[in-house]
Write a structure and sequence with these properties.
There is one protein chain. The protein is built from no helices and eleven strands. The chain has strands spanning about 5, 10, 15-25, 30-40, 45-50, 55-60, 65-70, 75-80, 90-95, 110, 115-120.
């Protein structure tokens, strides 16, 4: 599976962005999709995941502000980010795993995109 993220950019605090993750191949619907982020000097951290059937799971830091979704017909996962804060500034990565249990753990993921940069100005 090859993953390509898009939609990053510069936005003011309080603004919104929608990230997309386009996947190659015909098996997209069999994967749990996750979003992670990595800020400068920090470890890559879990943001959100969505199961094959569409059940979402969020990190506490983004709950209520971010929404993960997927369109299996388009082989694409999305991350809608609202009420953005400067601390959301990071490179955002999408990833794919065959498991849902433990999907907050980056070690569970087999495939990763190259990342898209999000900068939130104060």
């Amino acid at each position: 599976v090859q993953l390509v993220e898009s939609g990053g950019g510069l936005v003011q605090a309080g603004g919104s962005l929608r990230l997309s993750c386009a996947a190659s191949g015909r098996t997209f619907s069999t994967y749990t999709m996750g979003w992670f982020r990595q800020a400068p000097g920090k470890e890559r951290e879990f943001v959100a995941a969505i199961s094959r059937s569409g059940t979402p799971y969020y990190a506490d830091s983004v709950k209520g502000r971010f929404t993960i979704s997927r369109d299996n017909a388009k082989n694409t996962a999305y991350l809608q980010m609202n009420s953005l804060k400067p601390e959301d500034t990071a490179v955002y990565y999408c990833a794919a795993t065959r498991y849902y249990s433990g999907s907050y753990n980056r070690e569970m993921y087999d495939y990763w995109g190259q990342g898209t940069e999000v900068t939130v100005s104060s």
